[in-house]
Design goal:
The structure holds two protein chains of two kinds. By secondary structure, chain A is mainly alpha-helical. Chain A contains eight helices and no strands. Chain A folds into two domains: 2-95, no CATH class; 103-157. Chain A has helices at residues 2-11, 16-32, 39-43, 47-62, 64-80, 85-95, 103-127, 134-157. By secondary structure, chain B is an all-alpha fold. Chain B folds into two domains: 1-48, Homeodomain-like (Arc Repressor Mutant, subunit A, Orthogonal Bundle); 57-212, Tetracycline Repressor, domain 2 (Orthogonal Bundle), CATH 1.10.357.10. Helix content of chain B is 78%, strand content 0%. Chain B has helices at 2-22, 29-36, 40-46, 50-74, 82-95, 97-101, 103-109, 113-137, 147-169, 175-190, 198-212. In chain B, helix 4 (50-74) packs parallel to helix 8. Classes of the chains: A mainly alpha, B mainly alpha. The interface between A and B is large, with 65 and 57 residues.
Chain lengths: 158, 214
């Protein structure tokens, strides 16, 4: 779904500032700035909420002078930003001095190892003696699931 | 020597991956050693049992979570960063979810972790309070007496238990969807206190997040 979002974003970059301004004018302003991310979904907002939104923008324009200063500042910040939530998360992680390499990336290496072991185990299972049965059986499940995780988390890093 | 350090880290990584996917209770040190293709003795050389592994993992988690949680207390976030921040908190918890899933069982076996976890939860609440205070100062939200503190408490609880709740009510392997829904539910809890154009705000939140789930 990340890529889905990213695609949408790419389609409508020129509207960014306008939307940012509208959001500001709609009074959800700064708080909703994060919503500039939503520009893609803004475009397909339901008729009802679009109407509501337009009303608010109209109302907002009346008081624009008082908020203009701040609106501009925010629009500037918003414009300067990349609109991908993933990029913003990454940037913020860097600012907070967090791991840049997310664990799931490192898990890749583990996944490779796991599938290699899985094959070895499968081969072993055929020749396995009964007493050692229990462990290998368990390890097999242990191995499968991380592989599943990989596909689930993969989306995020793209 | 360098090899030893590496093995230790690999043990932690492997353990974390297995714990998160299988549930901590289902994974033994022998399983971890088996997956890593090292001998149980070698693993034991680095960690004297599963609890030692859990505690080492907690060290990492605690260090990182503190960095995250103290950031908005030390310096208010730019407002557009607030929800990015919520994402990061959820990501951190998600990376360490086995611990949250088996919280009471683990704390029973690792009593040293209990006061540390308690402090972390308290810090979480302080962080939520600090963020709300900033929003209040910016006049984006308004609280009656005691409401901000109460909301901070609810948000801390929400952040702590959301992933388990989702795991029960909407089971799926899509971690990103769980995190998205958690961020959405966080933002929606703040909505009633938004001063202006609350409905639009809520409507846009809903639209934005539902667009993520398609």
């Amino acid at each position: 779904m990340e890529t889905h979002l990213a695609k949408k974003k790419k389609k409508s970059p020129p509207r960014t500032t306008d939307i940012a301004r509208k959001i500001w004018l709609a009074g959800i302003g700064a708080y909703g700035k994060a919503f500039t991310e939503a520009q893609g979904s803004l475009a397909k907002m339901s008729e009802e909420s679009t109407r509501l939104f337009d009303d608010l923008v109209a109302k907002g324009e009346e008081i624009e002078e008082t908020v203009e200063e701040r609106g501009k500042e925010i629009a500037k910040r918003v414009k300067a930003q990349d609109f991908s939530i993933d990029d913003r998360i990454k940037k913020m992680r860097a600012r907070l001095n967090l791991r840049q390499e997310r664990r799931e990336d490192r898990l890749d290496a583990i996944e490779h190892r796991l599938s290699a072991i899985e094959q070895t185990l499968a081969a072993l299972a055929e020749t396995a003696r009964p007493p050692t049965r229990k462990r290998p059986a368990r390890k097999t499940t242990a191995k499968k699931i991380p592989a599943k995780k990989k596909t689930a988390t993969r989306k995020r890093s793209t | 020597m360098a090899g030893k350090v590496k093995t230790r880290d690999r043990i932690l990584e492997t353990a974390l991956a297995l714990f998160n996917e299988e549930g901590e209770a289902q994974v033994s040190t022998v399983d971890i050693a088996g997956v890593m293709e090292i001998s149980p003795g070698n693993l034991y050389y680095h960690f004297r049992g599963k609890e030692a592994i859990i505690e080492a993992l907690f060290d990492n988690f605690e260090e990182e979570m503190r960095l995250v949680l103290t950031a908005p207390i030390n310096r208010p976030l730019a407002i557009e960063d607030n929800w990015v921040f919520v994402y990061i908190v959820f990501e951190e918890i998600n990376d360490f979810r086995f611990f949250y899933y088996a919280l009471s069982s683990i704390l029973e076996r690792c009593p040293d972790l209990r006061p540390r976890m308690t402090r972390l939860l308290k810090l979480k609440q302080e962080t939520a309070n600090a963020v709300l205070k900033t929003l209040e100062k910016e006049k984006l939200v308004a609280f009656g007496k005691g409401e901000r503190e109460a909301l901070a408490m609810r948000l801390a609880a929400h952040l702590t238990f959301w992933l388990q709740y989702r795991g029960l009510t909407a089971p799926s392997n899509d971690e990103r969807a769980h995190i998205n829904s958690g961020v959405y539910a966080t933002m929606m809890q703040i909505t009633p206190y938004v001063r202006e154009n609350r409905e639009t705000y809520a409507a846009m939140l809903a639209e934005y997040f539902s667009s993520l789930d398609k």
